[in-house]
TrEMBL record:
EC number(s) stated in the UniProt entry for this protein: 1.3.7.7
Subunit structure: Protochlorophyllide reductase is composed of three subunits; BchL, BchN and BchB. Forms a heterotetramer of two BchB and two BchN subunits.
Gene Ontology molecular function: 4 iron, 4 sulfur cluster binding; ATP binding; metal ion binding; oxidoreductase activity, acting on iron-sulfur proteins as donors; oxidoreductase activity, acting on the CH-CH group of donors, iron-sulfur protein as acceptor
Gene, per the UniProt record: bchN
Record key words, sorted: 4Fe-4S, ATP-binding, Bacteriochlorophyll biosynthesis, Chlorophyll biosynthesis, Iron, Iron-sulfur, Metal-binding, Nucleotide-binding, Oxidoreductase, Photosynthesis
UniProt cross-references to Gene3D superfamilies, sorted A to Z: Nitrogenase molybdenum iron protein domain
GO biological process: light-independent bacteriochlorophyll biosynthetic process; photosynthesis, dark reaction
Protein name: Light-independent protochlorophyllide reductase subunit N
Biological classification of the source: Bacteria, Pseudomonadati, Pseudomonadota, Alphaproteobacteria, Rhodobacterales
Root EC class: oxidoreductase
Family per record: Belongs to the BchN/ChlN family.
């Protein structure tokens, strides 16, 4: 049986000093978040104010076919804009008007800043206000930055959701808000679990459509499904909502703890919680045990990339039998990561930020069985004989909650199994 009483405080590596790294870093930019956000918000459009490089990145990352009309695009900043020879605001207004006249289905328009638009100090916040007045009430215009100058790629989603929070209507309803963009099948599983516990007043941010009945206020409690939503957390807190701290729903243990935090808040009876979670928990444990066999006793090194590193390290060490040599994360939000840090072993090496040369040296010296890193580092490390896993794949693949726990373990097990088979073939 599960105990829904609050767990005793765990120490883990909560007090372990974090190695602060400041130097050259290798990450995607926040524009990448558009690739999954435009699929979640069906009446939204993401207009990147950037260069041809930004446009090429989005086209390549999304794999958009030439005859498709996706819910994103790029307003190209030409040389005259960058040199200050043209009024970029006038040109932006003209491009937005053309877009909205052609796409009557758009209800939310996001003006997404990029490195070029930030370099020339283009005030997209003022532009969003001006365009909202012009096109309201049919279209709501918001803005956020997807610039990769000082951010990692998952912060694009965080910036987008944080921009949506201030315009949510006020509500006094006692409600649960589940925050973070998930694949539709995973979101449905999440809602089935929560509603199965008897919690009916539930909303999800982001909602599929702008007209969704969603508000926020002092009676709103929220649970984060993604560990990189620090700005969204701050924005909701400013609106009076209250965060439910918990480990993140990766693996059987994390999912159960995440659901327990919600169950305690809404006084879900122990028997009902057990009835809802017992079967999927058993399936998750069985699936992880089967998939994680190649990982047992192996070592893993995390380069900072997606901000999923701490929850994934907790999953691999506690449920898959791995040892984490080093867990690097671009940023460590002390409030959001509190429960994850408490579950990692005392003395675990944790680094925040990146100095890629120093981390490469430590990785080579440790020679881990598996290295989780960005695309730019994976091929060179593979050439040196290290087995790697692309961090970005863990963002694009359904990995949350019980039914995906085995798949999550498999993502790490495949490269390890592949190397074992290659070594076996070489020995023969």
């Amino acid at each position: 049986m599960n105990d829904l009483t609050p767990p005793a405080p765990a120490a883990g590596c909560s007090a372990t000093p974090v190695l602060k790294e400041r130097g050259q870093h290798e990450v995607f930019c926040g524009l990448t978040g558009i690739i999954w956000l435009h699929r979640k918000m069906q009446d939204a459009f993401f207009l990147v104010i950037g260069s041809r490089t930004c446009a090429h990145l989005l086209q390549s990352a999304a794999g958009v076919m030439i005859f498709a009309e996706p819910r994103f695009g790029t307003a190209i900043l030409e040389e005259s804009d960058l040199a200050g020879l043209a009024d970029a605001h006038e040109e932006l207004d003209r491009e937005v008007s053309k877009l909205l006249s052609r796409r009557s289905d758009i209800r939310q328009l996001f003006l997404v800043g990029s490195c070029p638009s930030e370099v020339i100090k283009l005030d997209l916040a003022r532009a969003a206000e001006r365009l909202t007045q012009k096109h309201a009430p049919h279209v709501r215009v918001l803005n956020y930055s997807g610039s990769g100058i000082e951010t990692t790629f998952t912060q694009g989603e965080d910036a987008c959701l944080a921009a949506m929070v201030p315009v949510l209507p006020e509500t006094d309803r006692r409600q649960l808000m589940l925050v973070g963009a998930l694949p539709d099948v995973v979101e449905d599983q999440m809602l089935d679990l929560v509603r199965g516990m008897g919690i009916e007043d539930v909303c999800v941010l982001p909602a599929p459509r702008a007209e969704a009945e969603m508000g926020v206020g002092e009676n709103t409690v929220y649970a984060l499904t993604q560990p990189f939503l620090g700005d969204t957390h701050a924005a909701l807190t400013r609106r009076g909502a209250r965060h439910l701290p918990a480990p993140f729903p990766f693996g059987e243990e994390g999912t159960t703890a995440w659901l327990q935090a919600i169950a305690r808040e809404f006084d879900v009876p122990q028997e009902r919680f057990e009835a809802v979670t017992a079967a999927p928990r058993a399936r998750a444990r069985k699936a992880v045990a089967r998939a994680a066999q190649p990982l047992d006793g192996k070592s893993v090194f995390f380069f900072p990339d997606s901000q999923l590193e701490l929850p994934l390290a907790r999953f691999l060490t506690r449920e898959c039998g791995m040892q984490a040599v080093e867990v690097g994360a671009p940023f460590i939000h002390s409030t959001l990561m509190r429960d994850e840090l408490a579950l990692l072993p005392d003395g675990q090496v944790i680094s925040e930020g990146q100095h890629v040369d120093k981390q490469l040296d430590r990785c080579r010296a440790a020679s881990p069985d598996l290295t989780v890193c960005g695309l730019g580092l994976a091929n060179p490390l593979e050439a040196e004989g290290l087995t790697t896993k692309w961090a970005i794949e863990l963002v694009f693949t359904p990995v949350h909650f019980y039914e995906q726990a085995g798949d999550l373990a498999s993502l790490f097990a495949r490269p390890v199994r592949r190397k074992d088979l290659l070594q076996l073939e070489a020995a023969e």
